[in-house]
Amino acid sequence: MSQGTLVKRQFGHRARLSLSRAEVLKTDGQAHAARTMWNLLHAWWRMMPKEKRTLGHADAAIRQAREDIDFLAVLPAQAAQAVLKTYFQAWKNCWEGRADAPNFKGRIRTVMSVDIPQGRDLNITRVHRRWGMANIPKVGRVRFRWTKDLPVGKCAGAENRITGARLIKDTLGWHIAFRVQTLEVKPDPHQGPDVGIDVGVTVPIALSDGETYQHGEWLSGKEKARLLHLEQRAAQRKQHRKPGERTSRRLHHTYDQIAGLRAKAKRRALDWQHQTTTAIAQTYGTVVVEALTITNMVKSARGTIEEPGKNVAQKSGLNRSISQEAWGRTVTLLTYKTARLGGTLHKVPAPGTSKRCSACGFTTPGNRESQAMFVCKNPDCGWSGNADHNAARNVLHLYRMGLALIPAAGRAVVRRAKRVKPAAAR
């Protein structure tokens, strides 16, 4: 398309809410009601025969449940309809092989959330530079941090508006995630150079042109000492608790403090990933990464009783390091950022990239003498250099040789292998 073509794009913006204690209790009640609604829908689905599992019958069951159960009445009708649509979409994703079958949601491990499907219900206004206000059904007017300009008031239109929002609770409290629809100019193809990327643990991101992106510890020395102290305190208090005894408020408070420090480390890691991937997407037109199967890489080496594993502790530490680097999230961020700026992202097969010499192509496990040093054992070559940069050059070489897998242009959708539908879905 030529320059100036307009395309419609959906994106989200998350902001922190400032709620009073009464507003927090109301929002918590709505989130628990939404989770209960999901569980009731799942029980209804399993109980009803196949011909009765329709959207109309489910809608009638939801309306009746909201009349019969006072606890469910705290959930707005639009939010209840959103739960219904999400549940049916979950089954559709299962049938098309994109996800597992939906199941009951537990109280502890489920993220508390409430959907506000209609943007006009929010009635967003900006109070001043730092704060804005929005209307939450059955809660009232609440404040949120204004960290990004939103299409409200005169800036809103048919093609540039807020279509809805979702309330999400995490360690820091309640947040609101706006769904924004906007009309943008489609970017021209990115004219930047090609680059291969090798991800690792010691060097998180190494590029084929010799550039590296590294980070330090996500927590400072005092914060790490504080976290260790809290974990030891929680372990001592849990040890002295009698079997069957309820968790004390002090122990709950200690758990909250631990979760707060871990959430701080996660936010810093995510911020670093966003800044790094944005810089890469702005600089390079074609980004090539390895198609890593991370779930297989972080499997435990414990083994079985008959055949116990070897070096279990070392493998466990490596698995934690891989999980902390979040390689999959880096690729996801690069995917949509390169597409937004006119670039492309491709994946190539991962085997052999760290053992192959990028200068002559000679491949042997002995080429990589250490984590950082690569020395080609080919007598006619003898090239030496950084092992991570060598792997990144091999990644780019595979792409130029035409060995790229399915291009990941646009939003990445993980598709699982198609399987037989569960018996409950028939």
Mean pLDDT: 84
Helix content: 25-40%
Assign an overall shape.
globular
Q: What is the H/E string?
A: EHHHEEEEEEEEEHHEHHHEEEH
User: What is the CA-atom radius of gyration, in angstroms?
Assistant: 26 Å
Task: Count helical runs.
Answer: 9
Q: Got a strand count?
A: 14
Biggest sheet record: 7 strands, antiparallel
| Intertermini distance | 45 Å
Poorly predicted spans: 407-426
Strand line-up in the sheet with most strands: 2-6-7-1-5-4-3
Structural class: alpha+beta
The portion of residues forming beta strands comes to 15-25%
What do you see in this structure?
By secondary structure, the chain is an alpha+beta fold. Helices cover 38% and strands 19% of the residues. It has helices at residues 21-47, 55-68, 77-95, 221-239, 249-283, 294-297, 312-325, 327-340, 387-400, and strands spanning 6-18, 113-116, 125-126, 131-136, 140-145, 161-170, 173-185, 194-199, 205-207, 212-213, 286-290, 344-348, 373-375, 384-386. The protein starts with 5 loop residues before the first strand and ends in a 26-residue tail after the last helix. Mean pLDDT is 84; it is low at 407-426.
